[in-house]
């Protein structure tokens, strides 16, 4: 009763709760679908071991998809005003941000939503559940911020998710999606108005 009463008082919090439950439901479904039930932990370990190798090339379709994702990322961001034109000097903390954005979101999210949940030798059909979980992750309980609820942010997150999935499937290596995710987020936060957007949203609360 307490939780239902809290949800009625705060619909935004309720939506984050629903997203969190749905996210983990999709994660479990993806794990069971990809690894079987009970989970084949040996197969998962083998997949993760293979994913850490450097790529030797990329499939043409994956390179095209990655390019389209980058185009959507930039064009939608600029046209909607979610991204500003690159500025110099960057926002404070850019140097330290190289490390923090590499670790989270890039390495953490790519290992979880790509290397663990998507088989590198599979196709995009195997990536549907992980992609859906990736989107819900950005509106779950640990992302309770107006920026993460902005449809423009979610559109750009979807473009990054599709691009990173294509890079992973097309190279069978986790490093290209990590690089794409890392550079995209770092440039957005420190050069294209992302940090100011978070600060302005906080000031409005």
Summarize the structure.
The protein is 73% helix and 0% strand. With 205 residues, it is mainly α.
Characterization of the model:
- One of its GO terms (molecular function) is endopeptidase activity.
- It holds the Pfam family Rce1-like.
- This protein is mainly α and 205 residues long.
- Helices cover 73% and strands 0% of the residues.
- It has helices spanning 2-9, 11-35, 41-51, 60-79, 94-116, 128-137, 146-149, 151-171, 175-191, 194-204.
- Helix 1 packs across helix 2, helix 5 packs antiparallel against helix 9 and helix 8 (151-171) runs antiparallel to helix 9 (175-191).
- The longest helix is centred in the N-terminal third of the chain and has 25 residues, at 11-35.
- It is globular, with a radius of gyration of 18 Å.
- Uncertain regions: pLDDT < 50 for 5+ in a row? 1-7
Note the beta-strand portion: under 5%
For the biggest sheet, the summary is: none
Q: Helix and strand succession? A: HHHHHHHHHH
Helix proportion range = over 70%
From the alpha-carbon coordinates, what is the Rg to the nearest angstrom? 18 Å
Helix count, DSSP H or I runs of 4 or more residues: 10
Q: How many runs of DSSP E, i.e. beta strands?
A: 0
Q: Mean pLDDT score, rounded?
A: 85
Number of domains: 1
Which structural class matches the secondary elements?
A: mainly alpha
Measured between the Cα atoms of the first and last residue, the distance is 28 Å
């Amino acid at each position: 009763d307490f939780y239902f009463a809290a949800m009625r008082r705060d619909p935004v919090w309720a939506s984050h709760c629903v997203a969190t439950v749905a996210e983990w439901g999709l994660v479990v479904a993806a794990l069971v679908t990809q690894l079987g039930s009970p989970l084949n932990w040996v197969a998962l370990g083998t997949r993760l071991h293979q994913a850490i190798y450097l790529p030797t090339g990329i499939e043409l379709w994956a390179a095209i998809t990655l390019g389209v994702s980058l185009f959507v990322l930039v064009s939608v961001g600029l046209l909607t005003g979610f991204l500003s034109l690159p500025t110099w000097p960057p926002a404070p903390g850019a140097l330290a941000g190289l490390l923090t954005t590499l670790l989270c979101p890039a390495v953490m999210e790519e290992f979880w939503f790509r290397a663990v949940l998507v088989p590198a030798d599979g196709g995009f059909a195997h990536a549907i559940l992980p992609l859906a979980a990736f989107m819900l992750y950005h509106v779950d309980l640990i992302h309770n911020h107006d920026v993460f609820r902005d449809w423009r942010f979610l559109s750009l997150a979807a473009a990054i998710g599709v691009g990173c999935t294509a890079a992973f499937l097309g190279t069978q290596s986790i490093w290209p999606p990590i690089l794409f995710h890392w550079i995209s987020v770092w440039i957005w936060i420190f050069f294209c108005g992302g940090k100011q957007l978070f600060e302005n949203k906080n000031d409005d609360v």
